[in-house]
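REQUEST FORM: STRUCTURE PREDICTION
Request ID: SP-0412
Submitted by: Lab K.M.
Chain count: 1
Length (residues): 773
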Amino acid sequence: MRAARILAGCAALAASCTMLPPREQRADAFAARVTAVLERSGPGRDGLRVIDNILLGDAREAPPLAPPIVRELLARPVGAADADTLFYRTVPGTLRRLVEDASAAPRREGAPLDLRELLDAYVAELARAQRLVRDAAHGTIDARAILDDLAHDLPAEERIAAAAAGVDAAELARGIGMFVAATSRFVAALRASRGRIRFPERATRFDSPIGVVAIGTPGDDVHGAGAALIVDPGGDDVYERAPVTAGAISVIVDLGGNDRYRGSDVVIHGLSAIVDLGGDDRYETSGPGLGAAIAGASLILDFSGDDVYEAGIFAQGAAALGLGALVDLAGNDRYRVRAGGQGFAMTGGVGLLWDRAGDDMYVAGGLPDPFDRGAGLSWAQGVAFGFRTALGGGVGILRDDTGDDRYAAQMFAQGAGYYWALGLLWDGNGRDAYQDARYAQGNGVHEAIGVLRDEAGDDRYEMSIGVGQGMGLDLAVGLLYDGAGDDVYSAPAYAQGNATANGVGIAFDAGGADRWRAGPDRRVWGYAEPLRGLPSVGAILYDQAGSSFYRDGAVAAAPAGSSLEDPIQPAVSVARGRCPVAAPVPPDAGDSLADLLRALEPGVAAGNMDAAAFALVRARLARGLRAAMQALPAGDFDVMFSFAEALRCTLASVPDAQPLWNDLEHVLDEDPRTPFAGAILGALAERPAPPAQAQRILAVLDRHPACGVRVGALRLREAIAVDEVSRAALVPAARAALASSCWQLQSAALGTLRRRGMPPPAGAALPAFLRAR
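STATUS: Completed
RESULT:
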């Protein structure tokens, strides 16, 4: 039976099992091709280990609730091409089996059956799942606050953090698995017995252990949102939906008709499902919902028909701390979401939109971007998001098996991952078009994985701004993989196999008459910018016989496939970025320093810090730096990012810096492993402490567990070496650093020796890209 199901499922895919070599062979062949390109014209195979080496060297552990597969792929980036394995590893088995069973033809057999018999068994199973989900919550989940957030934005970090702290994840997962499995069995029984089930002659309602159960009629019914379970035999029905909270259950099973579902049915600690067996249906809400859940599960399974799905923020396969799935088995469907959907996941969530067949259209709008980067924030179409430095992300997947499909979005879309998250857009067969602005089409950002894989068809990939199409940004992996067809790729810059800040970006096209179009910017086609003294890895792999390249509209030479810029950084310059001009200190309203720093962050990121806002922060730091640091939330990225720049500019501008230097030394004495070490290094590079004090501080930083801090200490030591004694001491320090397993520190040591005119010791164990230098 299982073999038959596998064969049936495989036949439904555009790329059939008989047409593709075994998965392991395909994965090995891809890895070999990438390695060959890197060995020939780039950093070599060691380049693919840079992310892993940095994470190990800096003792960076995955943040809470990060998907384990993310860390595995950061260590082995070529594994991101295996969409089949990514899907199998991350989508719950109960959900995969439900879709597998639903895609197979039902077995019609047996005697007439009373509906109540099926309902009683299903309700009993639902009650057991509900108990598990309710028992999983040992804290308060503020549904009202989350709903308020979702009216205009994604849920705030503090909401998700509080919900995560109040839920037993393992117990919740057991309840969700039981719910999906029970629903699968109930639907299978209905399909097998269809035409032989005895329904009541009129609409019926009765109480049950899970709440009210309602049975509709073959006519056109209107069902309110009050029932826990609704079963309707047919007709063009209307279903009013409402949020599912406090461990409640809301299930609809509709056997036929052109139905309409309206209202927000987002789950915030609860269980929800809509199963529609036929008809051209409309699923509409101006708010969150339609297969969207936080601390629970929400499922939509639509068997057939040309359907329309429209929703606001957080919808159409969206989840945090649970499962949100929208599965459509057939029909030419239309999906539209404002933002945060169509296969979107936040912390601890699996968000899935899976369309099995049809010519479909996916459209995502965008939320306002506080950094004004040229488009809105879509967070849609196979995207996952984590809260930087605080919580890992989830797994967001949009899978479309076949059909000529259209995908349109703005920023963070179409196979993108942000901070310890995995985003995957996987399209099977068809002539597809992908259009968006930025951070999309296979883009990983900040220790995350972003993948767009299209198996076959003549496809078009267009980006109006760039940063995508196989782009890895800051210790992240971005992959664009196209398996076959005559394709067109268009992006101005930072695209088509590009990487920055030690990321890995790969653009791969297996063959066809392809056109690659870019702007005048050189940061495309395998170009990568180094950082931390180590390379980034950019690679473009293409059919040399069929591909043509265009730069700024003119024919261009075919790229080599990868490149290696010298990763060894020059000597440290004490001069840093521009600080705000002096401004009067505005009245102090008593806001916390953390809140002041958060408000400062957009200007810091844009390189245009608000002078008045900085004057207030500067006054706080100058008044008591040590106490101010003790009060800051060290795990808040926005706060720490702004603090580092504010500290640097404060130290640069105060008339008497000695009290600040003393406070910084005290902080290190109290906690040599302090998370403020990087900010301290940046400030001292701007305005070094007196020599004796600087040496004491550096001696502590030399022992910091994070390799990046030790690198900064060596570079600062070199920058402040002003006499022969301190300069002479640099050579043995650099040679000792070469013995480290941390490639960052080895690179910094090589730079120090290079500037001293000294060769590295013979036999030093270095990665290939450093040995070549």
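NOTES: The longest strand covers residues 244-254.
Reviewed by: T.R.
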